[in-house]
Specification:
462 residues, 21 helices
Length: 462
Amino acid sequence: MKVQFTETVLRDANQSLIATRLPFEKFEGILSTMDKAGYYSVECWGGATFDSCLRFLNEDPWERLRKIRAAMPNTKLQMLLRGQNLLGYKHYPDDVVRKFVERSIANGIDIIRIFDALNDLRNLEVAVDETNKNNGHASIAISYTTSPVHTIKKFAAMVKDMEKMGAKSICIKDMAGVMSPQEATDLVKAIKDACSLPLVLHTHCTTGLAFMTCLKAVEAGADVIDTAISCFSGGTSQPATETLVYALKQMGYETDIDEKVLVEINNYFKPIRDEYLASGLLDPKVMATDTQALNYKIPGGMLSNLISQLKMQNAIDKLDEVLLETPRVREDLGYPPLVTPMSQMVGVQAANNVLLGERYKNIGKEVKAYCRGEYGQAPGKLNPELVKKALGDEKPITGRFADTLEPQFEKTKAELGDTARSDEDVLSYIAFPQIAEKFFAARKAEEEKHVKYTIEPLKEDK
């Protein structure tokens, strides 16, 4: 029996703990060592890394990926893609989705974990098809959650459709760490009965269940588990790589992991962790176990960002009220899984409801778009009073929203002209126009500052 490991420190672990503020220069020195660890894959891109590189780190996310690829030639690199949302917060036309997938693989990605925040499979088809066309590995993820409308039977039926769609593996994506050991056992067995694909489990330690859940998932037949090197594990992050390697080996499972290399990796990241603790960016709150997440279903990245946002508004004292309001908003929206972009949408609306002292006094434009059907089919029934308040007499969309969008890539490329130096720049701009513009301007200014002028010495008169 064998179990494999996906290391998350370069993406989800630091996204969950420090809001994705880990610049390339911080981890560059350990990449060649990580390449020798024996990981199934290293998750290093996608999710919030793209936005964070442009917005906060003054990095080109594409260049970051190319550098990681060059430093880790022997390890499969993995990214997280939000289906038709790509790495942004709205749906994009099919031509943009196809180009983004193609360039991601061309720049070094091997495995693309593709999910839809609502588990609307229509929003996965194009990204999966393009991944397969470019010889990438399409790992389709179930956005796992619990609610009156989410059942193991429905998840198992969904997996059959994912296999037909072209998935090379299935991932159970438990964003909030709410999956219990028994639920993991039951769901893994149901999925294994429903399809023949490799199965990956992704969970978080938020509620304290993750280590037990991983063990029971492996016992039930999971092939790969997502873990984080120990100093960036726990809390809203993933369970510790070293701990699970140790435990599973004692239980008789084979792994490809070199434990001596794990020690080197952890020793490298320890001072980085301590630096973020000292600066306050790593808040001890997100490193603790919070069993209340079993009630409000908030994933790690959402919780760390919510704390950060409330601090900026000097309203951290309202955190408990916002956490109580979150499941109420989620119910009103038909029980969407709390994963990007739904987690941000629900979290912001819950915060607004609390801070303004009145529910839905101000309805966010994203919530209005959701009620309109721009994100896909809600898992359950929306609160009709909220829909009426959000849309008025406007009729919601019933089909696939991307079918209503005009092709965008070539048009945008022509409009940008010399501002975009590559197709990758065009994609960055489409995903985050204002942020990309600022990045392009800063990049140009930095380059001009470092131009070296050579002056010919004066010739002596003879």
